[in-house]
Amino acid sequence: MAQQEPSLPEPAGGATRLDRRTLVVFSTAVVLLVVFEYWALPTSFRGTSLHTWLGETLGEGYRPFFDLLPYQYWGVGSLVLRVLVPLAVVVFVLRESPREWGWRFPRDWRHIWPYVVFLAVMIPVLFAASALGSFQRKYPFYAGAVAGGWHFWGFQLFYGLQFLGVEAFFRGFLLFGLWPRLGWNAVPVMVIPYVMIHFGKPMPETFAAIVAGAVLGYLALRSRSFLWGVLLHWSVGICMDAFVIGREIGWVAMARALF
User: Fold this and answer.
1) CA separation for the pair 2, 139 (Å, rounded)
2) SS3 of the chain
3) Arithmetic mean of pLDDT over the chain
4) Contact assessment for residue 226 and residue 167, using Cβ atoms and an 8 Å cutoff
5) Are 140 and 146 in contact (CB under 8 A)?
6) What is the pLDDT of residues 141-197, one digit of tens each?
7) Are 138 and 204 in contact (CB under 8 A)?
8) Among candidates 140, 42, 28, 45, which has minimal Cα distance to 82?
9) C-beta of residue 42 within 8 angstroms of C-beta of residue 129
10) At what angle do helices 227-249 and 109-129 cross, to 10 degrees?
11) Which among 207, 173, 175, 210 is positioned nearest to 190, based on CA atoms?
């Protein structure tokens, strides 16, 4: 007599099939993750005909910043693929308000102080990490940032766009998009691809992304906004770059170059 195959347990809450919203979020997120990985990173732009053409078009005055262009391309690519495209999907496909997907700035102190504490905790951690060779070899991504001035702040401006894209995509589109179906389970689901974009970075940072992604996801859902997370993430990025540069050229020289 043939043995009967065990059946899968019924999902909780009657979630036996994908709803339209969840399917749109999943499919959009997967496509954008692939497109971003292959066409929006600095390595995708560096050395291309567009890179050369832009360098020639901007003229001799921008020639010293030629190597900065791939990182500016990265920031613009993040803005388009991780912010504008998901927003277009929310507004024109799902017909919903961006405010319901985290696009709001909470002004209540109870939603702000956790980010302030998070940054205060992270600063000494970043300072200690900047002494490690693995972080010194990785940061800043744009080696020319050590020269200060527009080399540093021009990079940080577009680096900030990249952080806006990260938070808007993972803690905004993916997290709020999956909330109606998954509830708080949307947090660990979001953390999985978020951690994966850290592959290639120093191992301690990749493991830390598990905790950071979960905490930022919790805070975003609690406040119904990811925008304070953008400022926190960008501040962490600036601090790490500044600490590594300070260790390389000296703190006084770093302060003079940056400010």
Assistant:
1) 61
2) CCCCCCCCCCCHHHCCCCCHHHHHHHHHHHHHHHHHHHHCCHHHHCCCHHHHHHHHHHCHHHHHHHHHHHHHHHHHHHHHHHHHHHHHHHHHHCCCCHHHHCCCCCCCHHHHHHHHHHHHHHHHHHHHHCCCHHHHHHCCCCHHHHHCHHHHHHHHHHHHHHHHHHHHHHHHHHHHHHHHHHHHHHHHHHHHHHHHCCECECHHHHHHHHHHHHHHHHHHHHHCCCHHHHHHHHHHHHHHHHHHHHHHHCHHHHHHHHC
3) 94
4) yes
5) yes
6) 999 999 999 999 999 999 999 999 999 999 999 999 999 999 999 999 999 999 999
7) no
8) 28
9) no
10) 20
11) 175
Is it the case that residue 9 has pLDDT exceeding 80? no
Q: Which residues pair with 199 in a beta bridge?
A: 201
5's tokens: 């195959």
Nearest in space to 221 (alpha carbons), one of 193, 192, 187, 194: 187
Q: How far is CA 93 from the centre of its chain?
A: 24
Report the distance separating Cα 229 and Cα 213, nearest Å.
10
CA gap 102, 105 in Å, rounded: 8
The residue type found at 250 is G
Residues 211 and 187: beta-carbon distance below 8 Å: no
Distance CA 237, CA 74 (A): 15
- Residue 237 and residue 243 in contact, taking contact as beta carbons nearer than 8 Å: no
